[in-house]
Amino acid sequence: MSNINETPDESLHGLAHVDEKYKDWFLDYASYVILERAVPGVEDGLKPVQRRILHAMKEMDDGRFNKVANVIGQTMQYHPHGDASISDAIVNLGQKDLLIETQGNWGDVRTGDDAAAARYIEARLSKFALDVAFNNKTTEWQLSYDGRKNEPLALPMKFPLLLAQGAEGIAVGLSTKILPHNFCELIDASIKYLRGKKFELYPDFLTGGMIDVTNYNDGRRGGKVRVRAHIEEKDKKTLLIKDVPYGVTTTALMESIVKANDNGKIKIKKVVDNTAKDVEIEVQLAPGISPDITIDALYAFTDCEVSISPNACVITADKPVFMGASDLLKYSADFTKELLRRELEIKLSELEEKWHYTSLEKIFFEKGIYKELEQKHKDWETVLQAIDKGFGPYKKQLKREIQREDILKLTEKPVRRIYRLDINELAEQIKGIEADIKQVKHDLANLTDFAVSYYEGLLKKYGKGRERKTEVKLFDTIQVQQVAIANTKLYVNRNDGFIGTSLKKDEFVADCSDLDNIIVFRRDGVMLVTKVADKTFVGKDIIHVDVFRKGDERMIYNMIYVDGKTGYSLAKRFNVTGITRDKEYHLTKGEKGSKVHYFSANPNGEAEVVTVRLSPNCAAKKKEFDFYFETIPIKARSSMGNVVTKWPIRSVKFKEKGASTLSGIKIWYDDAVGRLNTEQRGIYVGSFEGDDKILVFYKNGTYELTNYEITNRYESNDAVYIEKFNPERIVTAVYFDADKKQFNVKRFKIETQTLNNKFSFIKEGANNYLELVTTQAEPVVILRTGKKRSPEEEEIALHETYEVAGWKTVGTKIAGDDFVSIELITEDEEAEKEEDDEGNIQTELF
Predict the structure, then answer these.
(1) φ, ψ for residue 286, nearest 5 deg
(2) Res. 318: pLDDT tops 60
(3) What is the rounded distance in angstroms from the CA atom of residue 402 to the CA atom of residue 387?
(4) What are phi and psi of 325, to 5 degrees?
(5) What is the pLDDT of residues 165-208, one digit of tens each?
(6) CA–CA distance, 168 with 311 (Å, rounded to integer)
(7) Backbone dihedral angles phi then psi of residue 61, each to the nearest 5 degrees
(8) Cβ–Cβ under 8 Å, residues 542 and 522
(9) Region Disordered: what ranges (predicted)?
(10) Per-chain mean pLDDT for the chain
């Protein structure tokens, strides 16, 4: 309440007009909506709600699917809005089929069907998401809205996610619309950018269809794309719409067709939705109506064609910025390169620290500095100083100063016995660490090559099945009568030299489109590319024919040919990414008499092994040998190749496939939940690839071999031991025989190979159970027998006392009913401490 003695001006002092407050409030609200709700961040391509969902799912991730309702609850710890917005965002992410694996009814963007309720559907992070989106060591954090949790400012995304998924949002006075692009093409473009090459990016939609990108304008404001559905002519009275344009549902499309018919734009008899796994809308024409004219009318007057105006706007340094798709990709590639650099630097720091301590440990034991622990120093500080002084002559060998913590860590190590073998092992460890350090430094010095290799790994691991789904075409040149992709079949007559779609009695090659180009290789070493036709003569002795995919750098051709002039046989590996149609290219030197001995096409650049047999009449001493294509580099198709032999070749036969280049997956076992994982939770099991198996032992005396799928579940209460299976390892087991009331030892090798079957390796009996099992090569145990309060202890080397026998044998008695316990001395206890009569610590070499 104002003072009655104050003047009116004095009583209003410090107050603001409503219009001034409204101006501030509006700006605050607009900024909040732009920054915190509608527009994605440029670093990871995510809106805040999406980022919080992924962060929450990462915290929940254990390899299993989680109810979406639970994910929503977890996300609400970070997101200050209701569950409806979170639910919609999760469904949107799941339908993009990239970061989230889904289970249940997640709806259908093509038909417009909604997803089931959150309590009925499940989700988990995809392996791709786990690979590219998370790394706590390179993540910057902030407090959540209520200050109780930490959440990422941006995820360390090593992939152009924003361009892959697309984004759409409406804020106050601002909107963004970024169209999705093709997964493989984004990686190829990132590699080209890092290599300093030009690249092009065009949208690609999961719904398929066709797109005209003439006015795309790199996704900037003012650009426009036209998107069409494929329409097939089933017969003269029926048309089939095989997909829907991006952003259009089958229901909306049918409604637009009915509306166009009602408005007299087209004449149809009936429209029927036959959509199931694939989209199919059947349009039945009115009598006497031309199907060709109707197709043009459908594009002109219905949602069979739509126009989309992109408007790429992102948040950069807390400000909305308009960028093009190329700029976004360049930023992502540079950001990824920087993240990889930071990861390498962190790895290098960890390796250097590991090298330092391992070197200290080696000097500590090798130079006898550990003996200072045996001396009668007056106090602990004196011991530490003596140890530090002992390192004096060797400090120049180290890369940093010795800290007090280093010495304390050495003295806290359990020291029992120290053999020369351990010092040699430490030396080997140091060599391995130095090799790793050298590799990391090399990668840092060649960061661009390392980033390119990273992208190539992503493409190889996740690119399959993510090929372009939307055709890029100029609509004004399209023949609408030939809309379908792969609407015909290609055949070949190798001997006569004909290819075409009408040779149905000859060898089938592949499904193709009337618009496809076909690549042909002949025995004389000539290659050409020609358009699909009913029947085309391309030359006799065809050795390979296929649909030509322009720009496919992963298709590698391996070839061995003889040069007609010199008689030398040469090998080459090459790709074909661009050509002039109907021009013949000589893959040999072009000399008369040249011919191809061997040819193979490898979609992923495989390098096989072949057996070369020389003519028996030649003077060569070795008339048969293996040739490894991996020994020669991939070059341009015009390269002549490497000499295989100067002697005449009789035959070249395929011997074996090239080795896989996929690296193994590192797996841990979380005994708390009985699940495998790749997030380093629990016990490290090993690195797995190919047909590797996991060996599990259970309390009831059974073992089981399984694959290494993350979805595997092992009952944590029953599983007592798990490791990567090695058939050469010897299993040592101690079990209780209830009938004889004794404990038996048996040593055996795993002889079975059947997966997911449990085999009992102890004597059958209702009360028999497994007491101990290990695959240590030289297991040593401490056996305690007698009275429980004061048992007698005996150290037994089981490998010296008990023979290896079959896995079905009963075993040999080790203890009777006076058994108290048995303890395995683990291999990671590198030394043990023993005291003599005077209390001095005695150490012995292993």
Answers:
(1) -70, 155
(2) yes
(3) 11
(4) -60, -40
(5) 888 777 666 778 889 999 999 999 999 999 999 999 999 999 88
(6) 9
(7) -65, 125
(8) yes
(9) 826-846
(10) 82
Q: How do residues 648-706 score in pLDDT, each as one tens digit?
A: 999 999 998 875 433 457 888 887 657 788 778 788 998 887 688 999 998 888 998 98
Geometric angle at alpha carbon 175, from 169 and 181, rounded to 5°: 60
The average pLDDT across 148-170 equals 87
CA atoms within 13 A on the CB side of 118: 16
Predicted TM-score (pTM) above 0.70: no
Q: Which of 22, 32, 120, 684 is catalytic?
A: 120
Check pLDDT > 70 for residue 484.
no
Match 């800290």 to its residue by tokens: 403
Cβ-based neighbours of 172, under 8 Å, separated by 6 or more: 26, 29, 30, 33, 34
Residue the block writes with tokens 């902030």:
142
Higher pLDDT, 105 or 479: 105
| Residue-wise DSSP of 117-162 | PTTT-EEEE-HHHHHHS--GGG-EEEE-TTSSSEEEEE----S-HH
Percent of the chain residues topping a pLDDT of 70 = 86
Whether 684 is catalytic: no
Q: Which residues contact 448 (CB under 8 A, 6 or more apart)?
A: 194, 195, 337
610 Cβ neighbours under 8 A, 6+ residues apart: 560, 598, 626, 627, 629, 652, 653, 654, 655
- Which residues, 6 or more positions from 272, have their beta carbon under 8 angstroms from its beta carbon? 281, 282, 284
Pairing of strands 471-472, 210-212: parallel
Tokens of 245: 């344009």
DSSP symbol at 465: T
Greater model confidence, 366 or 282: 282
Both tokens assigned to 126: 């995809």
Report the half-sphere exposure of 501 (CA within 13 A, side-chain side).
Answer: 17
Q: Give the whole-angstrom CA distance, residue 778 versus residue 800.
A: 8
What is the per-residue burial (b if ≥16 Cβ within 10 Å, else e) of 396-417?
eeeeeebeeebbeebeeeebbb
Q: In what order do the strands lie in the sheet with 719-724?
A: 719-724, 694-698, 702-706, 758-760
Stated as kind and residue range, the H or E segment containing 343 is helix 325-366
Q: Does the pLDDT value for residue 164 go beyond 50?
A: yes
Q: Output the pLDDT for position 214.
A: 86
Phi first, then psi: what are they for 111, rounded to 5°?
Answer: -95, -15
Q: Distance between CA 533 and CA 514 in Å, rounded?
A: 7
Q: What is the dihedral of CA 9, 13, 15, 16, to 10 degrees?
A: 70
Closest CA to 575 of 585, 564, 563: 585
Q: Which amino acid is at 605?
A: G
Distance in angstroms (rounded) separating the CA atoms of residues 225 and 229: 14
CB-count exposure of residue 668 (10 Å: 0-12, 13-18, 19+): middle
Q: Per-residue DSSP letters for 3-54?
A: -TTS-HHHHTTT---HHHHHHHHHHHHHHHHIIIIIS-BTTTS--HHHHHHH
Phi, psi for 3 (deg, rounded to 5)? -75, 135
Q: How far apart are CA 121 and CA 100, in angstroms?
A: 12
- Specify the long-range contacts of residues 489-494, CB closer than 8 Å, at least 24 apart: 490/516, 490/518, 490/532, 490/545, 490/547, 492/542, 492/545, 494/541, 494/542, 494/543
Q: What is the pLDDT of residues 573-611, one digit of tens each?
A: 999 988 888 999 999 988 999 999 999 998 878 888 999
Query: DSSP label at 630?
Result: G
